[in-house]
């Protein structure tokens, strides 16, 4: 059993990742609306509720490719229940190795398919034994001979498995994928480490996290770095892809961040590291991170320091309280020097099509 699985209960297998999302009927652990003004002593800033009465909703879940699991999470015959893109989903791998992502509830009487079992190439529902293949079609009703109703299928999502991740396509309007995710050259290249994995779940809106990359002035106040300006930074776009190049003159480092739609990105710092980042919305207020670090042989012995630099107190962890407590401003008050936030938003708008 890996650290992402929990099969101790009688219900559907779950991942540690879905711990922040309550199962129906439970009180949301993050709903602390009783701790409002006047209800007691001042609340330390790190304990402030992220969801308070009157705080505006963050933007909805954007359309795109997202990681739902690492490939290694799913051996043949495994079934996982995962909440992502504001939906209950089930991911399974067949005996032959094919992966499928489907809506969690059976079209028959609504049982959660995460409690089902894999039989060869199909998933058997725990309630009355109907079987579904990787396309979501019902291929067997154990107590009925003959024709299976055409509507007996569970919605399935387009899936790709690449670079050690299982990706699925989400579109609010149900449209087919309109781009493919590039692959990571470093993964199979000589002179590079295997993927070193980092996982986390955060209270954050996906778009807020993405905007952070073009928010040049925050580097000084949040991360203690020199301020970037337009002469040391570039933001360019190409359909669903965008690229940010940032030169940190003091450190002599160039960061190039290739963003592949709203859910996946590759950060390259030549001679230093490459990070393949998957950021998946659990809902509009929570994200799940699956990041793979690839290090060249030259920096492998300082792997811990490098990873801590990106994910630790001066990196990701410094952003976390800001993302948790901020609101999303539809019309931010931007001034010269703020970085290309407006250009970024114009580009990002395409991922809300079909609403
Ligand atoms: S609810 Fe799934 S087979 Fe009946
Ligand atoms: Fe940041």
Structure characterization notes:
- It is a single chain.
- With 355 residues, the protein is mainly β.
- The protein folds into 2 domains: 64-170, Rieske Iron-sulfur Protein (3-layer Sandwich); 185-352, Naphthalene 1,2-dioxygenase Alpha Subunit, Chain A, domain 1, CATH 3.90.380.10.
- The chain contains 5 helices and 20 strands.
- The chain has helices at residues 206-211, 218-223, 303-311, 316-325, 341-348, and strands spanning 5-6, 14-15, 64-70, 79-84, 87-93, 99-103, 117-119, 122-124, 131-132, 138-140, 156-157, 159-162, 165-170, 196-203, 233-238, 241-248, 253-260, 264-269, 273-283, 286-294.
- A hairpin with a 6-residue loop joins strand 8 and strand 9 (131-132).
- The longest helix has 10 residues, at 316-325.
- It starts with a strand and ends in a 7-residue tail after the last helix.
- It binds FE2/S2 (inorganic) cluster and fe (ii) ion.
- FE2/S2 (inorganic) cluster binds next to loops.
